[in-house]
Amino acid sequence: MADSPAEDDIKTMSFEAALRELETIVGKLESGQAPLAESIAIYERGEALKRHCEALLKQAEMRIEKITLRNGQPTGTEPLDPQ
């Protein structure tokens, strides 16, 4: 399924920018002030932002390493969640 033009800009957003916009969307939806058509459109954008944030978090999680210790001293690193 191809991304919509509105979702293309999301791919380049930082996690922080995407999260800020998602929080704004949630606020609009919770206020109930947006017309139905606008609510549906911003809900869909919010879903795309949520997916983007989840993907960025997963990438970050995969990069985190756990420091290994031997006798209380760091001896190196290993993947946080070895598989």
User: Helical region count?
Assistant: 3
Largest sheet: 2 strands, antiparallel
Structural class: alpha+beta
How far is the N terminus from the C terminus? 30 Å
Taking all residues together, what is the mean pLDDT?
Answer: 84
H-E string = HHHEE
Explain this structure to me?
It contains 3 helices and 2 strands. The protein is an alpha+beta fold and 83 residues long. It has one domain. Strands 1-2 form a two-stranded antiparallel sheet. A hairpin with a 2-residue loop joins strand 1 and strand 2 (73-79). The longest helix has 28 residues, at 36-63. The model has no long low-confidence stretch (mean pLDDT 84).
Give structural attributes.
83 residues; alpha+beta; two-stranded antiparallel ribbon; 3 helices; 2 strands; 16% strand; elongated
Write the SSE topology.
Elements: H1 5-8, H2 15-31, H3 36-63, E1 65-70, E2 73-79
Antiparallel strand pairs: 1-2
Helix pairs in contact: 2-3
Question: Outline of this structure?
Answer:
The protein is of the alpha+beta class and 83 residues long. The chain has helices at 5-8, 15-31, 36-63; strands at residues 65-70, 73-79. It has a two-stranded antiparallel sheet.
